[in-house]
Amino acid sequence: MLELDKNNFSTEVLEASGLMLVDFWGQSCEPCKALMPHIHALEEKYGDKIKFASLDIAKGRRVAMGQGVAGLPAIYIYKDGEMVEDLRGDAATATAVEELIKKYI
Question: I want to staple 20 with a disulfide (CB 3.0 to 4.6 A). Which of 14, 49, 78, 105 is the partner?
Answer without folding.
Answer: 78
